[in-house]
Write a structure and sequence with these properties.
The protein has helices at 15-31, 84-95, 99-120, 122-137, 175-183, and strands at 2-7, 35-41, 45-46, 54-57, 70-75, 156-162. The chain is an alpha/beta fold. It has 2 domains: 2-82 and 144-183; 84-137, no CATH class. The protein has a 6-stranded mixed sheet, covered by helices on one side.
Length: 188
């Protein structure tokens, strides 16, 4: 099977993030109908707002059980960043819409701990959430949540960065790792 794994923030309620994979899939299928695209984001499940597709958890890409080499395309939004905790806290803000969203993203025990800490200090609750979210959904080797080095991805047929935004300059401590990630990419 000819499959492309497509990674982005397709699990959040943002028009551009939800439109990007639809256009990408349409362009690929127009070019080669045999291609299959599988979307990946931090949280698995149906894309929000009735977008009509589902995402797999990004951590599944790092599962050593994959046999077929895959091409990984990373694209959409301001996602080339190294601030893991800010990304995790963004998902916390998205999930606070409902208890069920929080429970899904950090588990029942994490939800209880979050609410206990929320009564003591708002900052501690956000930090607690970010730590739990990272442990649950972003526990993989990478320079940043969406800066994936092909050498850290088992069975990778190459990593491609297409139409990615960079919201801020990389910290000096991260620049070498980011540079290695981009140097190993098939295309940018």
């Amino acid at each position: 099977m000819n499959e492309i794994s497509h990674l982005g923030t397709f699990d959040v309620e943002n028009y551009g993030d939800l439109l990007y994979p639809l256009i990408f899939r349409h362009l690929l299928e127009t070019r080669d109908p045999s291609l299959r695209v599988c979307q990946y984001s931090p949280l698995p499940g149906a894309a929000p707002l009735g977008a009509g597709f589902k995402t797999e958890a990004i951590r599944e890409l790092f599962n050593g059980g994959r046999i077929e080499p895959r091409r990984l395309v990373i694209g959409g939004g301001d996602i080339l960043r190294t601030d893991w905790d800010n990304v995790a806290m963004h998902y916390g803000r998205q999930s606070r819409i409902s208890y069920e969203g929080l429970r899904q993203s950090i588990g029942t025990a994490g939800l209880f701990g979050y609410f206990v800490r929320q009564n003591f200090s708002r900052k501690n609750a956000s930090r607690f959430y970010a730590e739990r979210f990272r442990a649950c959904w972003m526990d993989y080797l990478a320079a940043g949540p969406f800066l994936i080095n092909h050498q850290e991805l088992p069975g990778s047929g190459g990593v491609h960065y297409i139409s990615c935004g960079v919201p801020h300059a990389f910290e000096d401590a991260q620049k070498d790792r980011v540079k290695q990630t981009f140097e190993g990419a098939q295309s940018i």
